[in-house]
Amino acid sequence: RWPALFEEVRAVLNGYPKLRLSQGRK
Known about the structure:
The N and C termini lie far apart (36 Å). By secondary structure, the protein is mainly α. The chain has one helix spanning 2-25. The model has no long low-confidence stretch (mean pLDDT 80). 92% of the residues lie in helices and 0% in strands.
């Protein structure tokens, strides 16, 4: 259960900069 949660958090952290740039363009 924990490993899956860690992977999800890691994916969010990896995608965060892209989301931030998307919102910045708006």
